[in-house]
């Protein structure tokens, strides 16, 4: 399991990294929110240990960002012990909450409870693309490709309905709900990003209608 540890105290990140290594996990360390977001966007992270007090941004903001675009469990670390602070963290999407000071073993045990269950993964297949639907990552010819939450929702919908054409409005409604006021043109950027990551020919543009999966890719004709 790839674990991102975000805390500005080096001693905390070092000792937690040591315990996760002993547990057979791969730890990534960040001492700032900016670096944490960079790691999340560039690496397949399975779980985040997140301190609320960071030098450049609030942990709550990172939590909200992750829960909006990714499906990654978060354990919050904080020195705040008031119940209102805990409830606020859970409301933002935190999956667990650990109050400082703590023993590293406690964090590892709590992380184990949130470990993705490999045996319960549902797989979608389209040509050389394999998707585990409870993750934001896809496998393309044995290589893991990371998608944002919105990109992941779009490609799953298209693959589940490979012969159906979806308009921009259809995809916006799927991502953000029927009442969304988001400009449907944002879908074009999502499609562009998906094509860049998995191949330009995978998603077909149907002029005047929208997007669908390219069946020639599924049949390996391209």
UniProtKB/TrEMBL annotation:
Alphabetical list of PROSITE patterns matching this protein: OMPR_PHOB (PS51755), RESPONSE_REGULATORY (PS50110)
* Occurrences of domain Response regulatory (ranges): 2-115
Residue ranges occupied by any OmpR/PhoB-type domain in the UniProt entry: 121-215
Q: What is the official name of this protein in its record?
A: Response regulator transcription factor
Superkingdom classification of source: Bacteria
Record's keyword terms, sorted: DNA-binding, Phosphoprotein, Transcription, Transcription regulation, Two-component regulatory system
| Entries under InterPro entries matching the protein | CheY-like_superfamily, OmpR/PhoB-type_DNA-bd, Sig_transdc_resp-reg_receiver, WalR-like, WH-like_DNA-bd_sf
| Chain positions with 4-aspartylphosphate modification | 51
DNA-binding region, as residue ranges, is located at: 121-215
């Amino acid at each position: 399991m790839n674990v991102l540890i975000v805390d500005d105290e080096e001693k905390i990140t070092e000792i937690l990294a040591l315990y996760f290594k002993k547990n057979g996990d791969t730890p990534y360390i960040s001492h700032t929110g900016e670096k944490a977001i960079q790691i999340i966007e560039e690496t397949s992270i399975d779980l985040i240990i997140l301190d609320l007090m960071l030098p450049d941004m609030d942990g709550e903001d990172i939590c909200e960002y992750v829960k909006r675009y990714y499906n990654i469990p978060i354990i919050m670390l904080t020195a705040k012990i008031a119940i209102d602070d805990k409830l606020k963290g859970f409301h933002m999407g935190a999956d667990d909450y650990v109050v400082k000071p703590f023993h590293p073993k406690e964090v590892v045990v709590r992380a184990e409870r949130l470990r993705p269950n490999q045996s319960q993964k549902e797989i979608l297949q389209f040509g050389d693309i394999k998707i585990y639907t409870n993750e934001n990552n896809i496998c393309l010819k044995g290589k893991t490709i990371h998608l944002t939450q919105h990109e992941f929702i779009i490609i799953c919908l298209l693959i589940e309905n490979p012969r159906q054409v979806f308009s921009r409005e259809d995809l916006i409604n799927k991502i953000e709900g029927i009442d969304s006021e988001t400009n449907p043109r944002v879908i074009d950027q999502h499609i562009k990003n998906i094509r860049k990551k998995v191949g330009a020919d995978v998603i077909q543009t149907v002029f005047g209608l929208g997007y669908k999966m390219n069946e020639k890719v599924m049949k390996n004709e391209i």
